[in-house]
């Protein structure tokens, strides 16, 4: 895999020089190809959309999934732009809305809640390009060492923070937060039943981590939601730093987690095609329930 990973990174480097409209068009073309050939991921996306939008017709759901793959293709090819693009170019392409410098000024550490939309990594870059506070995050280690190193390097290229492997102890992350670092938190993937509860997500019980509420309460954190959005064609990206939540966390982690999922649902309804539908969000089931992806 090492040789293949190096070739892929070289391709990313070459592509990042292209004008944004051309890069976006190539990404949409890749998305159409993936929709045609990546049968298992297409089926996962269709099942997720079916579960979350039962009110839509089958034709509407299939159209939504096709559109999603177009954004997915873009997000893959434009990764090179985030890894290798110059700071001035990225600052021109990323439109930031809201209070991006809250973490710099806050006397309490800040947790950014960032759901898995296609511009997730753009949101990560914006927390480094437009504010100076050190940033910590968690990431899933890659089995390929070359790709793993490239992802770590790409996500840290503008900031002297750290990304901690999900498989490691949480202690280094907690120490960083206690030093005042901001925490870029991705709260909406299915990591199994450990430290999670089955909380409604579009009305379907979904294994959801209770950690955002528990950690924010234990470490007295300010919780600020952040949404990344890809814009059509060559327009770049928009990252919205929303107002900090004044009623989160409470002393009820389960109620907090349900409220968080309702907020994510509302943001998905606002921009449904750009959510990460190819992830098995409902993979873990309550005891005795059959798989939703059989």
Describe the structure.
There is one protein chain. With 294 residues, this protein is an alpha/beta fold. It has a domain at 87-274. The protein has 12 helices and 9 strands. The strands form 2 sheets. Strands 1-9-8-2-5-3-4 form a 7-stranded mixed beta sheet, with helices on both faces. A two-stranded antiparallel ribbon has the order 6-7. The protein is globular, with a radius of gyration of 19 Å.
Global outline: globular
Order of helices and strands: HHHHHHEHEHEHEHEEEHEEH
Number of strands: 9
Radius of gyration: 19 Å
Class computed from helices, strands and strand pairing: alpha/beta
Span of the ends, CA to CA: 30 Å
Discrete helix count: 12
How much helix is in the residues?
A: 40-55%
Lateral strand order in the biggest sheet: 1-9-8-2-5-3-4
Poorly predicted runs: none
Largest sheet: 7 strands, mixed
The proportion of strand residues reads: 15-25%
Would you kindly provide a brief summary of this structure?
With 294 residues, the protein is of the alpha/beta class. It has helices spanning 2-15, 20-37, 39-52, 58-77, 79-84, 87-93, 102-105, 120-129, 145-155, 171-178, 211-218, 253-270, and strands at residues 94-98, 110-113, 135-139, 162-165, 182-185, 196-201, 204-209, 222-230, 237-241. It has a domain at 87-274.
Keywords summarizing the entry:
single chain; alpha/beta; 7-stranded mixed sheet; two-stranded antiparallel ribbon
Fold blueprint:
Elements: H1 2-15, H2 20-37, H3 39-52, H4 58-77, H5 79-84, H6 87-93, E1 94-98, H7 102-105, E2 110-113, H8 120-129, E3 135-139, H9 145-155, E4 162-165, H10 171-178, E5 182-185, E6 196-201, E7 204-209, H11 211-218, E8 222-230, E9 237-241, H12 253-270
Parallel strand pairs: 1-9, 2-5, 2-8, 3-4, 3-5
Antiparallel strand pairs: 6-7, 8-9
Helix pairs in contact: 1-9, 2-4, 3-4, 11-12
């Amino acid at each position: 895999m090492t040789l293949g990973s190096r070739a892929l990174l070289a391709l990313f480097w070459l592509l990042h020089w292209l004008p944004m409209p051309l890069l976006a068009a190539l990404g949409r073309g890749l998305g159409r190809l993936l929709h045609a050939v990546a049968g298992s991921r297409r089926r996962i996306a269709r099942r997720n959309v079916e579960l979350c939008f039962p009110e839509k017709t089958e034709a509407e759901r299939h159209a939504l999934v096709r559109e999603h793959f177009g954004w997915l293709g873009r997000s893959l090819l434009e990764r090179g732009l985030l890894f290798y693009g110059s700071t001035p170019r990225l600052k021109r392409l990323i439109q930031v809305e809201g209070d991006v410098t809250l973490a710099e000024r806050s006397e309490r550490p800040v947790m950014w809640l960032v759901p898995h939309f296609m511009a997730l990594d753009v949101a990560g870059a914006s927390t480094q390009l437009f504010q100076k506070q050190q940033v910590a995050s968690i990431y899933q280690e890659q089995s390929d060492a070359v790709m793993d190193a490239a992802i770590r390097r790409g996500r840290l290229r503008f900031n002297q923070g750290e990304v901690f492997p999900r498989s490691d102890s949480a202690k280094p992350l907690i120490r960083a937060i206690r030093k005042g670092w901001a925490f870029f938190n991705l709260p909406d993937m299915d990591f199994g039943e450990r430290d999670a509860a089955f909380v409604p997500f579009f009305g379907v019980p979904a294994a959801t981590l209770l950690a955002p509420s528990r950690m924010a309460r234990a470490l007295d954190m300010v919780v600020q939601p952040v949404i990344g959005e890809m814009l059509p064609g060559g327009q770049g990206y928009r990252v919205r730093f929303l107002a900090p939540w004044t009623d989160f966390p409470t002393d009820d982690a389960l109620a907090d987690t349900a409220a968080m999922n309702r907020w994510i649902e509302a943001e998905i309804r606002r921009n449904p095609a750009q959510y990460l539908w190819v992830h098995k969000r409902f993979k873990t089931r309550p005891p005795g329930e059959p798989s939703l992806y059989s």
